[in-house]
UniProtKB/TrEMBL annotation:
One of its GO terms (molecular function) is DNA polymerase processivity factor activity. GO terms for cellular component: PCNA complex. Keywords: DNA-binding. GO terms for biological process: leading strand elongation; mismatch repair; regulation of DNA replication; translesion synthesis. Residues 2-44 form the Proliferating cell nuclear antigen PCNA N-terminal domain. It comes from Rotaria magnacalcarata. InterPro entries: DNA_clamp_sf (IPR046938), Pr_cel_nuc_antig (IPR000730), Pr_cel_nuc_antig_N (IPR022648). This is Proliferating cell nuclear antigen PCNA N-terminal domain-containing protein. Gene3D superfamilies: DNA Polymerase III, subunit A, domain 2 (3.10.150.10).
Length: 48
């Protein structure tokens, strides 16, 4: 990405994914990535 390129991150309220879009300044290059979100369960682990 160059300093004048744009980066957009989109998410819908009811969606389990985000979309990352990158576009060059003169709009000749465009990349669109969809990433699924994960719900991680975490446990508090202590040192015995």
């Amino acid at each position: 990405m160059g300093k004048d390129d744009s980066l957009t991150i989109r998410v819908n309220d009811d969606s389990d994914s985000i979309v990352i879009a990158m576009e060059s300044q003169n709009q000749d290059k465009f990349a669109d990535y969809e990433l699924r979100l994960m719900d991680l369960d975490s446990e508090h682990l202590g040192i015995p």
